Amino acid sequence: MSEKRIKVGDEFYVLREIDLYRPIYFAGATGIFHPIYIDPLFGKLAGFRGNILHEYCLTSFVISALCEWGGKKSSIKSINIKFKGWTNPGDIIKIEWTVKRVKGKEISVLFRVYVREKEIAKGNGFIIISR
Fold first, then answer.
1. What are phi and psi of 52, to 5 degrees?
2. Are 37 and 26 in contact (CB under 8 A)?
3. Rounded to the nearest 5 degrees, what angle is found at the Cα of 81, between the Cα atoms of 127 and 67?
4. 3 exposed, middle or buried (CB, 10 Å; 0-12, 13-18, 19+)?
5. pLDDT of 8 above 50
6. What are the residue boundaries of the structural domains of the chain, listed by start?
7. pLDDT in tens, 52-77
8. How far apart are CA 89 and CA 37, in angstroms?
9. Does residue 7 carry a pLDDT above 60?
10. Distance between CA atoms of 13 and 1, rounded to whole angstroms?
11. Which of 75, 105, 113, 114, CA to CA, is 20 to 30 A from 90?
């Protein structure tokens, strides 16, 4: 990313698979063991296709994608995300973002997260990149 000049209007995206064990890893790291997040049968009984991914875990996918795009020395200054849906283990999510402002090392982006062509989250963030 540092070799190319980033400008307002640039668009990027990444695809990420939600592996089957991600909810278990997340529960172990956070202590959030609610059955809707770790038990597929409970998720089905609640009306979903199975267990669902916790919103904080999905947020970590967005942060990871932005930091990978920004490079080794990038960091997230702030992030705001609104959830409109959910995702299940095994899904492939698409995270896409558009550069809205570039000021020195700070880049403002708007992003959206999709699963099965349906928007499930959107928001904005400020990423700091050491160039």
1. -115, 160
2. yes
3. 30
4. exposed
5. yes
6. 11-128
7. 999 999 999 999 998 888 888 888 88
8. 10
9. yes
10. 13
11. 75
